[in-house]
Structure formats: C-alpha cells, structure tokens
Write a structure and sequence with these properties.
- The protein is an alpha+beta fold and about 475 residues long.
- Helices cover about 50% and strands about 20% of the residues.
- The strands form 4 sheets. A 5-stranded antiparallel β-sheet has the order 4-3-7-6-5. A 5-stranded mixed β-sheet has the order 9-11-12-14-13, covered by helices on one side. The chain has a two-stranded antiparallel sheet with strand order 1-2.
- The longest helix is centred in the first third of the chain and has 50 residues.
- It starts with a helix and ends in a 10-residue tail after the last strand.
- It comes from Salmonella newport.
- This is Virulence sensor histidine kinase PhoQ.
- It is found in: Cell inner membrane.
Length: about 475
Amino acid sequence: MNKFARHFLPLSLRVRFLLATAGVVLVLSLAYGIVALVGYSVSFDKTTFRLLRGESNLFYTLAKWENNKISVELPENLDMQSPTMTLIYDETGKLLWTQRNIPWLIKSIQPEWLKTNGFHEIETNVDATSTLLSEDHSAQEKLKEVREDDDDAEMTHSVAVNIYPATARMPQLTIVVVDTIPIELKRSYMVWSWFVYVLAANLLLVIPLLWIAAWWSLRPIEALAREVRELEDHHREMLNPETTRELTSLVRNLNQLLKSERERYNKYRTTLTDLTHSLKTPLAVLQSTLRSLRNEKMSVSKAEPVMLEQISRISQQIGYYLHRASMRGSGVLLSRELHPVAPLLDNLISALNKVYQRKGVNISMDISPEISFVGEQNDFVEVMGNVLDNACKYCLEFVEISARQTDDHLHIFVEDDGPGIPHSKRSLVFDRGQRADTLRPGQGVGLAVAREIAEQYAGQIIASDSLLGGARMEVVFGRQHPTQKEE
C-alpha cells in the first residue's frame, strides 16, 4: 500500500486540477439535480392534485340526491382525464357511493383524511394495484414486468380529498378520487431513474473536456518544465520571459538567479585562471632556484630566503585572489594605503631576473623615491608583474621602467626592444585568451588581468611604440589622492 501511495503521490497538477474540477462538477450536478427533482416532484404533486380535483368536481356535478340516496350517472362518451377511482362519503364519514367495489382500497382511506381537503398517498403491493387496473391491458403488462423484476415492489397511488358544503339540492359531501395508475408507472417517475444516467453521462462527457482544459491551461507550465530540461542539457541559457502573467514573476526571478549563478561561476573561473597565471612567476623562480641548487650554482643558505620569499608570495597571491573573488564587481577598492613604487618594482625585477636568467634580460628602472602608489599593494604587484613579465618575454635584451605622478594619477612606463605590437592588435591583446604572437607560450591572460585591475582604479593601460624599437606600455592608475573618498 505504501509503495502504491508513493508511486502516485504527490499528485501532479493535472490530476489535482481534474479531481478538483470533477468534484465541483459532481457537487453542482447533484445540487442542481436534486433541486430540479424536488421542484419537479412538488410541481408534479400539485398538478396531480389539480387533475384529481377536476375529476372530483366532475363527479359532484353529475351526482344526484334523491330519497336520501346519491347516484352518479356517467355519460357513455365521457372522456376521463386520467383513469381514477371515485368514492363519495357523507359528513360523518359514511361511504355513500363508490365507482367500483374494491375492499382493500376502501379500507385504505383513513377517517382523518375525510375531515379536510388534502392530498395523500396509498402504499400497496403489485397485486392490489392490479385489481385497480384490471381493464387496462398496457398497465397490466407494465405491472407484469415490475413483478418479474421485484415481486415485493411497492406501488404508490395518489389520493385527493375534497369537501363540498351542503346546498339546497345536496347535503355536505366528501369526494375521494384515487389515481389508479401508480406513480412508479408514470413517465414522470422515470425522471428519478434518468437522473442517475444523466449524471453519469454528464461526468463521462465533462471529464474529457476537463482533461483538454487542463492540458491547455497547464501548457505554460509544461513549456517552462521543457525549458528547464533544456537548461540542464545546456541547450538554453535563459528561460523565455514571454509567458503567462502568473508565471512572469517566477520566470523573471529564475532568470535573475541563473544570471547571478552564471556570473558567480564566471567570476570564480576567472579568478582561478588569474590565480594560476599569477603563480607562474613565483613557481618559475622556485624552479630556477631548485635547478641552481641541483647544479650546485647556489648554496642552501642563499637559496633558502629566495624560496621562502616565493612561498610567501604564493600564499599572499592565494589570499589576495580569494579576497578579490568576493569583492569582484563591487567597484570598491580593497584598501587605500600609501606604498613607495620603487621598492615594489625592485622585488618584481629581482624575481623576473631569476625567471629570465638564461635569456639574460637587462631590466633598468629610473623612478624617483617620492613616487608612491595609493591602493592595495597586491593590486599594484599584480598589474606591474604581468606587464613586466610580458615585456621580458618579448624583449630581445633590454626593458626600461620609468614613472610620472600627478595629483590624482600615477603613470608607469614599461618599454622593451622586442618586435612591438602591431596597431591592429593593440586592443586585442587586452582581451582574455588573445595574444599578438601565438608562436610563443602563453595563455593571453596577464594583460587582461592587468587592465581589469587598472580599471578598478579608474585607470587604463595604453599600448604604443617604444623608442627602443619594441612596445611601450603606459600603465595609468587613477584615484591616487591619499584623502580621496570612494564614491
């Protein structure tokens, strides 16, 4: 039982809609049907009473009172509105006249019925009813069918009692008219049986229509589910915002969530790529130092501080990029500390000299000690490290560094004697994954990272031609006033 329930629960929206709507239709059908049937029954009783009262009036008109006896002469061509049985009583309840002598019917008339006008019913069996309809062959056939289906079936006969006051020609009379056709054999009674079939047919007709209505109504949800599956299969990037009014808010929020998650994923992927790229230099220094130790070109006492410095640099870079990942896109600088530029560049030059030791790169620097950088030290090191590494990679031998500072900007110039950067590719080299020279090893990340960090300081990196014959990179840092507040 539990497995069966778990298989079908929770119910789908379509099944819920069908069950709820079918329940409403069933309740309304029952309510309307019962009201209609009750109204019809009341109307039927009133109509029957009027017909029987008409028969009663007819017999009163045809009755004659002579010698303290009553007689009724029925014309041979008289067309009765319905087959009836008439009994006439005096004011004391004594039977004066009967259309036919049927003992069981006479006993069924209750004395209290004769005291006032009214409408009553007599319950009897099929055999008794048969005596009332002895001359009606079609009714006898119907009674035979009823007897075959249920020998104990009960028959109900309508009875109308009408009291006529005494007049000059007639004493007070009570006329009782009995409908000889039982209610169960009348066509009107079949309405109760038809109601069940109509209700069943109504449900059988309505349920397919409800299914179609549910299918049409839930199409937007099915479309949304299909789009979600396409998202899972990477065949779609966003949900279609053109949907029904009820789903618009949901789709908008889901799209916002997807966009946020995609940006977060791209942010961490970019951060991981940047971190990997930033670790290349300290790892290259460690590799070069270990190679020197193995070839006994450097003693352990000299190699140890170099290796510890690079390990510390790696640790700082990891912490720095994790912090940047959480702050990326906020536009707020991590700090506004004042750092002399020359010592920071000296450390970078020392590390790059070890990396490019075999190439024999000659890095010279002409920077005044008063020139300072305002901001996060690791930002400056990351930008200049990438720019200098790019210059050392493509230079033939010489790399020159100079700087100029204004009230709110710091300009650092890095020039090399390499092949330079063609005009058509000077904007391309700052895009991720793009490089001017695809023959040399690299990932096309360094200058893109440098530009992103410089832009956080309202700065930029400008590529031009150098007097040395190669490329000239002008790194501009904005927001360099120590007392400037972030907006």
